[in-house]
Every structure is written in structure tokens, then in C-alpha cells.
């Protein structure tokens, strides 16, 4: 089975901090995605990447950036964290058979 | 813009009963996914539906896709407590990007 690993389950950061959320996948696939999940809103796509050093904006990219220096690692960056970025963040890799495989999620609280 | 709507959003049912969750979407797509999420956990893939008329079943869950009606259903047969979770449908809007429904929180009571 494909594994997608997010390095932190819970994070608490202060307003204005620069925050890095890390995601590593063990498949040799190019496609990786970052979503945020909020109650009543489902999941919304922030950024995605189809290849190393390639990135595309999703539906809600404002306040975020990403980095893909190696195929297996896709990082989400909050340049200056704000309280409205408190959320659950989910990284996903694309498995051609089963579709997306999600990581365990990072619950970020910005205070 | 693709919109995906699930109903109901909350569902409380008794063990042994049957019920259906509906997923409607607004623009053409030939690929739809169903996921399950337990509290505090990530999303687990249940079904991938790739064509009109596709039907997949696993255990007490069965999913179907009608691309002409832009509708997918997730049918639960003889529910058991272990199926309590939140269920999401997600529609591929192209280039393998998904748009998710709001989720249906299912509670199954003994």
C-alpha cells in the first residue's frame, strides 16, 4: 500500500510565524496535493504538484506556498500564520488504482 | 465551477436498517470517489467509480454512479455500529483535482 506520512499530528503556532508542514510519500508517483479541512466545508485544495519543482495553485492558495525539491517530499508553507489558518491540513498522493491516499493529517492551531 | 453537494449532512439510524447517502454534482465528470473518515483520523478510500453505471460493493456498502444525472449514491445495508463515521464523496474536476462534498456524519445506534 502507498504510504503518505505527515510529520506532525498537532501544531500550535503564533500569529505571524512562518510554518512548515511536511509530507513524504513512498510511491514513485509525481502527483501530490495539499488540502485543508474545515467543519461544514469539506476539503478544499490549496496547492498541488505534478512533478519536482512544479506547483499549481488550487482553489484557496492565498496565504500559502509550497516546495517540491524532491519527488517524495511536498511541503506546505504558511508565510505568516494567521488565526484563520487554524485548520486540519491533509496531504495526499495519487494512486492510480485507489485514487488519492491521504496522510494522517496535521491539526494546526494559530494563536 | 464544479459544486458537490451531499445529503443528508447528518444521519442517525438504527442497526439493521438500510439507508442511502446522495452525492450530486454540478458539471460533467466521469470519476467519483467515496471516502470514510473516523473522528480525528484521516480519510480512507472506499470506492473509485470511473464510468457511467459503475457499481461497486464492499461488505455492507454499495456505491453507484449515474453520470447523466450527475448523481452518486452510497447505500448502506443492514447497518452496524462499526459503520459510524463521516462519509465524503469527491468529484474529479479535471487534471486529477478533486472537489469534495461537505461530508455526511453517520451515527448508527444499537
Description:
The complex is a heterodimer of chains A (111) and B (110). By secondary structure, chain A is mainly beta. In chain A, 0% of the residues lie in helices and 55% in strands. Chain A has strands at 4-6, 10-13, 19-21, 23-25, 32-38, 42-49, 56-57, 64-70, 73-78, 87-95, 99-102, 106-110. In chain A, strands 2, 5, 6, 7, 10, 11 and 12 form a seven-stranded mixed beta sheet that branches. Chain A has a three-stranded antiparallel beta sheet with strand order 3-9-8, with no helix packed on it. The radius of gyration of chain A is 13 Å and the shape is globular. The N and C termini of chain A lie far apart (37 Å). The relative contact order of chain A is 0.34. The mean pLDDT of chain A is 91. In chain B, the strands form two sheets. In chain B, strands 2, 4, 5, 9, 10 and 11 form a six-stranded mixed beta sheet that branches. Chain B is built from no helices and eleven strands. Chain B starts with a strand and ends with a strand. The model of chain B has no long low-confidence stretch (mean pLDDT 92). Helices cover 0% and strands 56% of the residues of chain B. With 110 residues, chain B is an all-beta fold. Chain B is globular and about 40 Å long. Chain B has strands spanning 4-7, 10-14, 19-25, 32-37, 43-49, 55-58, 61-66, 71-76, 85-92, 98-100, 104-109. The chains are: A mainly beta (111), B mainly beta (110).
Amino acid at each position: 500500500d502507498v504510504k503518505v506520512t505527515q510529520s506532525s499530528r498537532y501544531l500550535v503556532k503564533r500569529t505571524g510565524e512562518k510554518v512548515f508542514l511536511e509530507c513524504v510519500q513512498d510511491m514513485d508517483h509525481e502527483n501530490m496535493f495539499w488540502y485543508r479541512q474545515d467543519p461544514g466545508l469539506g476539503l478544499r485544495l490549496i496547492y498541488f504538484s505534478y512533478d519536482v519543482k512544479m506547483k499549481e495553485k488550487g482553489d484557496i492558495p492565498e496565504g500559502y506556498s509550497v516546495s517540491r525539491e524532491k519527488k517524495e517530499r511536498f511541503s506546505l508553507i504558511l508565510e505568516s500564520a494567521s488565526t484563520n489558518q487554524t485548520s486540519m491540513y491533509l496531504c495526499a498522493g495519487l494512486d492510480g488504482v485507489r485514487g488519492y491516499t491521504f496522510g494522517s493529517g496535521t491539526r494546526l492551531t494559530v494563536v | 465551477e464544479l459544486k458537490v453537494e451531499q445529503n443528508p449532512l447528518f444521519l442517525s439510524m438504527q442497526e439493521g436498517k438500510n439507508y442511502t447517502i446522495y452525492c450530486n454534482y454540478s458539471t460533467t465528470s466521469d470519476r467519483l470517489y467515496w471516502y470514510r473518515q473516523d473522528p480525528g483520523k484521516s480519510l480512507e478510500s472506499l470506492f473509485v467509480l470511473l464510468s457511467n453505471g459503475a457499481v461497486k460493493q464492499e461488505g455492507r456498502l454499495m456505491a453507484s454512479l449515474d453520470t447523466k444525472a450527475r448523481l452518486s449514491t452510497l447505500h448502506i445495508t443492514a447497518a452496524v455500529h462499526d459503520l459510524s463515521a463521516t462519509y465524503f464523496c469527491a468529484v474529479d474536476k479535471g487534471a486529477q483535482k478533486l472537489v469534495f462534498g461537505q461530508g455526511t456524519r453517520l451515527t448508527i445506534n444499537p
